[in-house]
């Protein structure tokens, strides 16, 4: 399934099922937190009013082009993923349709997840507008969720990042990983004939740390 998802991400250049007119759009309030599924993660934005959404989104195009008209168009998945790799992003304003990229929008869903109460809508929007412009992007430490969480709740956190890191920790720091590390280390030393005291201690230490962390 994962290869098929990547194929869809790179070779599908335009979203489907976008609203034909503004009359089809739901009514959002200024300061609402909007979220949509995008690539392999969820994408977040802050509604500013008048069909405008402020969102932090990676984009490679400003690095390779100065065509402002092209840069201002909807960010495709190809541009987004290359922007993630290059760590280039900006907080920009797009229409609701361009932000949604053909997906269904959830409104203020994070209110049910975050323990911190949301700020007033006008304050949320003011924060979102104040941060407009280019930024250095980090998938783990400063992404679109950090941005909207700061704007709406006053705390720059990312539940997606936490869940991802927790999954990685469980995988890396499992007892199976400890066994495999020890076996791989011993097997490598025997194959290369380099079973010195230093390599033996290093291999056992690495396996021990993983075991204790599991």
Describe this structure in words.
The chain has 214 residues and is an alpha+beta fold. It has 10 helices and 6 strands. Helix 6 (121-130) packs across helix 7 (144-153) and helix 9 (175-192) packs antiparallel against helix 10. It is elongated.
Please outline the helices and strands:
Blueprint: H1 2-11, E1 33-38, E2 41-49, E3 52-58, H2 61-64, H3 68-72, H4 77-86, E4 88-95, H5 96-100, E5 106-107, H6 121-130, E6 133-136, H7 144-153, H8 159-172, H9 175-192, H10 197-213
Antiparallel strand pairs: 1-2, 1-5, 2-3, 3-4, 4-6
Helix pairs in contact: 6-7, 9-10
What is shown here, in short?
The chain has 214 residues and is α+β, with helices and mostly antiparallel strands. It is built from 10 helices and 6 strands, in the order αβββαααβαβαβαααα.
């Amino acid at each position: 399934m994962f290869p098929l998802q990547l194929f869809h991400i790179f070779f599908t250049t335009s979203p489907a099922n976008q609203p034909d007119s503004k009359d089809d759009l739901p009514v959002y309030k200024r300061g609402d937190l909007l979220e949509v599924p995008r690539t392999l993660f969820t994408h977040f934005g802050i509604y500013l009013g008048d069909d405008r959404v402020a969102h932090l989104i990676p984009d490679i195009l400003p690095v390779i082009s100065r065509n402002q008209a092209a840069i201002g168009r909807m960010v495709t998945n190809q541009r987004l993923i290359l922007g993630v790799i290059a760590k280039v992003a900006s907080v920009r304003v797009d229409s609701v349709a361009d932000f949604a990229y053909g997906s269904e929008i959830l409104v203020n869903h994070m209110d049910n997840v975050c323990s911190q109460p949301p700020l007033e809508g006008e304050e949320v929007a003011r924060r979102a507008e104040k941060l407009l412009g280019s930024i250095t992007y980090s998938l783990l430490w400063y992404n679109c969720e950090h941005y909207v969480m700061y704007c709406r709740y006053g705390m720059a956190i990312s539940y997606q990042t936490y869940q991802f890191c927790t999954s990685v920790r469980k995988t890396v720091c499992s007892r199976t990983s400890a066994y495999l590390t020890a076996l791989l280390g011993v097997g490598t030393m025997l194959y290369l004939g380099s079973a010195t005291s230093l390599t033996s201690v290093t291999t056992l230490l690495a396996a021990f740390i993983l075991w204790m962390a599991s």
